[in-house]
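Table S5 (text form). Sequence records supplied for joint modeling of the two-component complex.
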Amino acid sequence: MIFKKTKSLEEKFHKFLNLTNETALVFLEGVKCYLEKNQEEFQHYLTLITKQEKEADSIRREIETVLYEKTLLPETRGDIFDLLEDLDDVINQTEETLLEFSIEIPDIPEKYNEHFLKLTEFAVNAINQVVKASRKFVQEPTNVEHNIHKVYFWEKEADRQSEKLKRAVFRDDSIEKLSKKFHLRYFALHIDMLADKSEDVADKLSIYAIKRSI
Amino acid sequence: MILFFLSGGLFLGWSLGANDAANIFGTAVGTKMVKFRTAAIVASIFIVLGAVISGAGASHTLGKLGAINAIGGAFVVALSAAFTVFWMTRLHLPVSTSQAVVGAIVGWNFFSHTKTDYNSLLKIISTWVFSPILAALFAALLYVILKKLFQMWKLSIFRLDVYTRIALVLVGAFGAYALGANNIANVMGVFVPVSPFPEISIGNLFTISSVQQLFFLGAIAISIGVFTYSHKVMKTVGSGVVKLTPQSALVVVLAESLVLFLFASTSLRDFLISHNLPSIPLVPVSSSQLVIGAVIGIGIIQGGRNIQFKTLGKIASGWVTTPLIAALITFIALFFMKNTFNVEVYKENHNLARNNVEIIQSTPKLQEY
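The corresponding structure-token record, covering 583 residues in total, follows.
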């Protein structure tokens, strides 16, 4: 009985991590389509990411209910609970940012497409690495450092790319309106935030691992 | 009337179940790894089995220390030991039932002008010092082995949780068996020479000796203690005083159980003797002190953190104060019982040691002695 419950919980946890990965990839594809002005495909990815966000929410709630109702993992559930909440926050951020693209329709000059794409890729890499670190945490709690370093690497790369993009935008005389520059900065900031949130999760994972090595 | 006289021991049994079951299932229940209901059922069954099947060894050593030959005396000894434990616990002084019982027996020896067997006394006292050290050694060794195994198996958090729960119940069952085997001597040991129960034969299949019936009754009292009061103690152990992870708790309980078993198992003792190895005296030891010893053992392996030398000092002081207080209380209580209530607390014409050994040897479980 207890084996069955734990197996189902483990499967749900991995399903949640898979969804986190997938939303990051869908986000990347969505941004690509937006930059390529492929509205139809963009809309497809926006619908998909909204669906995935809802599914992730429901799985997270299911896991949390089982953890507390069946008193499973009494020593670890606090950390698992926080980890799920933080990863869910990353998922929400991907969905919200893609939705912002569809609402605010930022006018991104073509010469910045490469910048935005690179920034998105770096942020998505950070998410993918934090998902790997989370998976490692439940499999080998004391051995997450390797993956955590990669999260930090991609977060720094995203920061560097975001700064480069913002500097270029604010020094670009072809963009006359300051409001437009602010608008571009706003989107760069929000994409970069995905990497920052991943870094926050990695920091916590690092502490969870230390707790288990004592 | 017999039940009234046995009540001293039954009260000791209840108090042992209420307090010492937490040394086995405390962290498991306190951290919600095992439900109290499961813990109480497993503990009760295995305490009874341990007491009835393997309880005779440690009782024999107590019997050698002082053969209480009147049920009134046994009642006073048990009640005085129980009162010492109760009173010292209320004063927050470190106390162990095993040490209180030994002190009370010596108190009876003084009162009845019986020569105390100092060899047995020395053997018993040396185990008080030796047993926590042994628990620390076992815990340190088990901790290293378990850590290596966990690293090798690479268990996920989810699987580790399941396996730890199962292991806590299994090790808890072994711990309960060992506790029953070792500590039943504290509860009923003093009544062995004066056991009022006749031997029961069930067909030609097996016989239940007088001593086994006595131990069964004592074990039932321990189980009632487990069911009625130990939940509170377990919750305190699990969430307060010594905070352990479920995996460390597993090591602590296993180390404690092994030591309890070593000091209770006649088969193991016989095995050691037959192989010309130094034998282990079968003596009731304090499970609480074994837990502290085991926790310190893990602490040393982890680099000497969390070792509270004050606690160690307190334990050592308990080795002296508990038996002295128990002996004094017993002496005074025997005086009042004899002179005020005219109860026979010892028989004048007796050869105590011989009497005791004869009675114990008449039980089938102890034929090998």
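Note: Chain B is about 75% helix and 0% strand.
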